[in-house]
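Give me the fold.
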Amino acid sequence: MPETAATPPAIVWFRDDLRLADNPALYRAAKSGQPLACVYVLDETHPRIRALGGAARWWLHHSLQALEASLAAHGGTLLLLRGSETRAVLQLADALRAGAVYWNRRYGEAQREVDAALKTSLRQRGLVVESANAALLYEPWEVLTNAGGPFRMYTPYWRAAGKLGGVADPLPEPAQWRFAPLPARLPMRAALDDLKLLPQAPEPDWAGGMREAWSCGEAAAAQRMHEFLKGGLHDYEAGRDRPDLPATSRLSPHLRFGEISPRRVWHAAHAAGGAGRDKFLAELGWREFCYSLLYHFPDMATRNFKPEFDTMPWRDDAHALRAWQRGMTGYPLVDAGMRQLWTTGWMHNRVRMVVASFLVKHLMIDWRIGEAWFWDTLVDADPASNTANWQWVAGCGADAAPYFRVFNPVLQGKKFDPQGDYVRRWVPELARMPAAQIHEPWAASAPHLAQAGVRLGQDYPRPIVVHDEARKRALDAYASLGGRGPMSRLR
């Protein structure tokens, strides 16, 4: 419709969709012909919506900065508000005398409740409200069993998803841009720095490694995707488990904050082809499955998916937990992963499985404690994937790894970091150890240790647990659940 002086603005509420291309809410609002008011609300007041961890807050700052620049290039502004989402959007709608509000859907239970109530309030005030899917290939309510319920196993879920038909084509950026004048004063308005998403003095600046490792924003996401599809997709299936090789997409934080859409990645991967394409797309499918679980089982972040694990005899061991968090367990692959995480806000997926298994099964520490550490330290900390993956490793989740699978960090290191290059990068104390001994330095002879400049217990710790003993302890604990044998309820 043509713009006139009386045309009421349309609010575009950005959330986990910090991009211009393939953004259905933005596209529909722009196509309506109404002048746009683009807003992001940082709400840290809701008691049931989990606040972002430190690493994710760092990413959010830079992603918002990139989005501000993208909108400014088209003559627009990203309005930043802080406080209750509901109050912020209602106040903005009143101040602008807006005619419509557009947003893309979220899938956590508390977020859905906020959106539903706000949609009702806005419509009662006479506004048009539209929501759309920008985060997933398929909506959680679209992929269901023949009985109409949610899937609890990934393979049948992904098979059923494939029968729904093709993935919708990604939308372009809006062809035309019109922006509404924004109110000079809003009680909840904030500048980006006012949101305090970065490390704040006197807190040390712990983000240097992340600044070195990452570029944030929509343009960086597109570049990362194209580089991977051009150079890494063909060998993805063979190389994806090798942390010593640059063989993964590293798109997870870009997807987490919606700097690129899964639809765009899906179609780009299909166009690129290559031997690793199907395996890569299956990883997108696992992300979809995790969001289905979040939607249908919203308490997965705090409760065991399998209730028989509620009696698991977890240990309270602050010393062991601290050693794990700092990458000082004495197991080089575990320590390399935890140090990579602390430095860059990211960890290779194979190593994530190994370090999670180590915490839960070697140390017998509750998976929720590990999940909380990842939530605070991962730039891609995702409410669906983080929880589902931790429960998968612990054996208590949907489609979980068998409880008796206890990753041996030495064998995992020898298999997936065969020359020790990953360990050498992140555990420099062991840089001079030969490949044959780098994953178990305690087994090296005194002359070999001396030649490598390693003094166990001084330069690098001895193992805090013995693998065989820890494995037996874990299996005994799993076998005790429900007071039955290990192959009864945990089959």
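Strands lie at 10-14, 36-42, 78-82, 100-104, 128-132.
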